[in-house]
Design brief:
The protein has 64 residues and is mainly alpha-helical. It has helices spanning 2-5, 10-22, 26-32, 37-58.
């Protein structure tokens, strides 16, 4: 997870923090962070994409 978080901007990390710690929806987390509601969905998709890429890169070569 830390590898994914380092690839986010400070604003994106703030949204993730609100989402994780306050149990908000992505939309609510973005609003709480002072951003547009759509930014929450954007961050959610980015986290999903980066996580998938991280898992792919860590997979042993034999599994590819």
């Amino acid at each position: 997870m830390a590898r994914v978080l380092t690839k986010l901007t400070p604003v994106e990390r703030k949204i993730v923090g609100w989402y994780a710690l306050a149990g908000l929806t992505w939309k609510q987390a973005a609003l709480k962070a002072g951003e547009a509601a759509a930014m929450g969905e954007r961050v959610r998709r980015k986290i999903k994409r980066l996580g998938k890429e991280d898992r792919r890169r860590r997979r042993p070569l034999a599994d590819k």
